[in-house]
Amino acid sequence: MTALSPPAALAGHPLAVVDLEGNGAQPPEIVEIAVLTVAAGPDGRDEGPVGEGAVGEGPVGEGPVGEGAVGEGAVGEGAVGEGAVGEGAVGEGPLGGTRVRSWLVRPATPVTAMARRIHGITDDELADRPLWRGVAREVEPLVTGRTMVAHAAAGDYRVLRAHLPTWRPPMVLDTLTLARHLWPGLPAYGLGALVRHAGLDTSGPRERRAHRAGFDAWCAWLLLCRLVRDGGLSWDRLVRVAAPAEFRSPEAGLW
């Protein structure tokens, strides 16, 4: 895998690429979360603390990157991670200038059959994993002060805010919205479909399974880089296109 340098437009903006998987209940509870932190400085060095870890310690999966749904099966559009590191964390190590960490989380409500069919995470796998309050202590510092990036970001942002009530990112960027703007007319805009359309090299993580959080966070990061480069975007233009309305200034319009 070739190390991936962030596009120039992202320099100076610390990012947390997030993907969630849920238990299928309403309101949804997180059963897996991945946070990929991206160095903010132009020289590749982060300007703040970077979380430990990277994607996957288990065997490489066989399926393509899939598409998820908040509540009904998965929270967001996720994929990765077996094994355990510390308090539920899955895997560790750098990936091309980024760091990824993922956790499995034991929910209060069992995983529904529909959710299990989508992401494959079972109640048995989660039985000895920490509850959210244990994972939250590790997750919140990783996402605080960083722009949140996600595919179909509105759902993941809403669910993560519910799980971290005092957290609010300085910005949210949605790769789904950005892809629809820059690549109109595609037959599908799920994360897996966009990865295939762009021909992205997703060989970095050791495990590549559909609907697991770590792999999809990695794919969303690759997709963001490709979209920003293809569109020749500055940071301001990226925000105008990809940020939810509540994060855009009132006078900002599309270009």
From TrEMBL:
Presence of the UniProt keyword NAD in the record: no
Region (Disordered): 42-93
Annotated transmembrane regions: none
GO terms of molecular function: 3'-5' exonuclease activity; nucleic acid binding
CDD domains listed in its UniProt record: DEDDh (cd06127)
Pfam name, any one: RNase_T
Biased composition (Gly residues): 50-93
Keywords: Exonuclease, Hydrolase, Nuclease
Domain of life: Bacteria
Domain (Exonuclease): residue spans on this chain: 14-233
Annotated protein name in UniProt: Exonuclease domain-containing protein
